[in-house]
Amino acid sequence: MNDDIDGRFAQGWGGTAPNGVHLNVLLARRGSATAASITTAFTAPRPGFTPILACVGESQRDYVTVNPPTVILSKSFAEEGGMVETMVFGAAQVGIAQGVLDVVAQGAIAADQDTLVFAALWIDPACDDETAVKAAAREAAAAAVAEAASGLPAAVREAQVAGRDALTHPFYGGD
Predict the structure, then answer these.
(1) Position 172 in a domain
(2) Residue 47 lies in a domain
(3) pLDDT digits (tens, 9 = 90+) for 129-158
(4) pLDDT(83) > 80
């Protein structure tokens, strides 16, 4: 297990459009400046972008906080009563919790109160399948948290540098 995780970032993608999920993840250690910034984000909601603490259970009375505590903030506007809000508070929350716990089960991070996970979540506003969103969120969370905990392999980092002139992105259409 890597204890030197404070301030480590990564991203993960899971699923396919319109039910795909993108996550940016930040890991922190309790008491650090990074943890303080996560706490600030958690305590600063605004309409359509309410941070939530991942918790799971069969009913609201049965909720249990996921450990490590995982704060989820939607990057997609979650209109009250809309599909994105439903997916953020339901399918994505469960999938992210599962993905984080998958990485705990692999031994990369601890299931304790000293480790914090911040997940900035993007869901396509056209999403329509909660089972697919849950699976996509789990895949994205597991990939992002594992990468943040362990880092990219040296070969991947070296390939990025070597291929930097040919880098592209799906949202870039230029030459």
Answers:
(1) no
(2) yes
(3) 999 999 999 999 999 999 999 999 999 999
(4) yes
Rg (CA), the chain: 16
Question: DSSP of 148-160, one letter per residue?
Answer: HHH---HHHHHHH
Contact indicator for 108, 1 with CB cutoff of 8 Å: yes
Q: How confident is the model at residue 6 (pLDDT cuts 50, 70, 90)?
A: very high
Query: Residue 171 falls within a domain, yes or no?
Result: no
Residue 19 lies in a domain: yes
Residues 94 and 64: beta-carbon distance below 8 Å? no
State how far the Cα of 100 lies from the Cα of 112, in Å rounded to an integer.
12
Sign of dihedral through CA atoms 158, 160, 161, 162?
A: positive
168 Rama sector, left if φ>0, alpha if ψ -120 to 50, beta otherwise: beta
Question: Peptide bond preceding 18: is omega within 30 degrees of 0, i.e. cis?
Answer: yes
Residue type, 59: S
The enclosing domain of 36 has a CATH number of 3.30.230.60
pTM of the model: 0.94
